[in-house]
Write a structure and sequence with these properties.
The structure is a single chain. The protein has 373 residues and is an alpha/beta fold. The protein folds into two domains: 263 residues, Alpha-Beta Barrel (TIM Barrel), CATH 3.20.20; 90 residues, no CATH class. It contains 15 helices and 16 strands. An eight-stranded parallel β-barrel has the order 4-5-6-10-11-12-13-14, surrounded by four helices. A three-stranded antiparallel β-sheet has the order 1-2-3. A three-stranded antiparallel β-sheet has the order 7-8-9. The longest helix has 27 residues.
């Protein structure tokens, strides 16, 4: 039996489900903490678990460079290596095709990267990416795709999407089915509805265990992203998980859940934590600001994480001003806890039929605090 997904409830288009895998169950909607190189930055595995996270993400491109997929396999797989027995999803390297465009050469066969570490050449094909993810023991593998740049003309987006479709077929053929494991196809097509429809239909015909919506949050803005989601999410099977890749802000997540998305990942909460920014029920706070120097208040009174339970804003301000590593650690704990709480409470609201009211309440808190999250 492959990876499974069951809908537990729905409120308009917002969905609450349960994904069942070889490494445990994941209630949805869910946010995946990003552990690009086999670690969530500034976090122990216990700290990640304490935030409420059920699934984390690793990256094929970065792990194939170091420590290499063969070494990870030799250590017993990524779950054992990073002390994460729960589900792990691995990106295929497709995003790096766009983000490292100056360091790669792409053909029909695959992509040759010049390592951003030492300039050495590495070839990644759909088959190779799938094999690397197998060696990593990824619970959920992603097909290799080209993340279409923005802006792109209809013709450019069509060429890119059809290449991704051909690569998806090759990735699917290379995938080794195992009980509780799955592979997701990635819908591309830029901001063009007809191309998204063509992509989705071709992927659905391949029978993937789940489907991702890729090529968004690449500069098109929230309004356009939501417009694409409005027509893209309903194209995907009702009985399979839907994953919006690389998104995003708390407001992005609320809007995407309302449109039928189940899974998310983004470096934003961890990166923000390392740069003194906290996502809170009152919006975004920058703890470097001088106004916090004598602030004896809790970072977020609605949060019960280690950071909020034991430390005041003035101390957090001091840590960042003194460049102490504990500052990024504490804010990363808080930000990931905030994201997990946002999704777990969204699930409760969906099951109760009150998702719109929940979103309104959360957004009202950001407004009253003066900054949108």
């Amino acid at each position: 039996m492959s990876l499974g997904f069951t809908l537990a409830g729905q409120d308009k288009n917002a969905r609450a489900g349960v994904m069942t895998t070889a490494h445990g169950q994941v209630p949805t909607p869910t946010f995946m903490a990003v552990g690009t190189a086999g670690t969530v930055k500034a976090m122990t595995a216990d700290a990640v678990r304490a935030t409420g996270a059920k699934i984390v993400l690793g990256n094929t491109y970065h792990l194939m460079l170091r420590p290499t997929a063969a070494r990870v396999a030799g250590f017993g797989g990524l779950h054992r290596l990073m002390d994460w027995p729960g589900p792990i999803l691995t990106d295929s390297g497709g995003f790096q095709i766009m983000s490292l465009a100056k360091l790669r050469k792409m053909t029909e066969e695959g992509v040759t990267f010049r390592s951003h570490l030492d300039g050495s050449a590495h070839f990644l094909s759909p088959e190779g990416s799938t094999e690397i993810q197998f060696l990593l023991d990824a619970t959920i593998s992603m097909v290799l795709d080209e993340c279409t740049k923005f802006p792109a003309t209809h013709e450019e987006a069509a060429i890119s999407m059809r290449l991704s479709t051909r690569w998806a077929r090759r990735s699917r053929a290379a995938f080794t089915p195992r009980a509780g494991y799955g592979q997701f196809g990635i819908v591309q097509g830029g901001v063009y509805e007809d191309l998204r429809a063509e992509s989705a239909a071709a992927l659905i015909a391949q029978g993937f265990e789940g489907y991702a919506i890729g090529g968004l949050a690449v500069g098109e803005g929230q309004a356009m992203m939501n417009a694409v989601l409005d027509y893209s999410a309903p194209m995907l099977p009702q009985d399979k998980p839907r994953y919006l890749m690389g998104v995003g802000t708390p407001d992005d997540l609320l809007g995407a859940v309302a449109r039928g998305v189940d899974m998310f990942d983004c470096v934003m909460p961890t990166r923000a934590g390392r740069t003194a920014r906290a996502f809170t029920s009152a919006g975004i706070l920058n703890l470097r600001n001088a106004r916090f120097i004598d602030d004896g208040g809790t970072l977020d009174a609605q949060c019960g994480c280690l950071c909020c339970a034991r430390h005041v804003r003035g101390y957090l301000h001091h840590l960042f001003r003194a460049e102490e590593i504990l500052g990024p650690m504490l804010l990363t704990i808080h930000n990931l806890t905030y994201y997990q709480s946002l999704m777990s409470q969204a699930r409760v609201a969906i099951l109760a039929g009150g998702y719109e009211d929940y979103c309104a309440q959360v957004r009202a808190g950001w407004v009253s605090g003066g900054q949108k999250a």
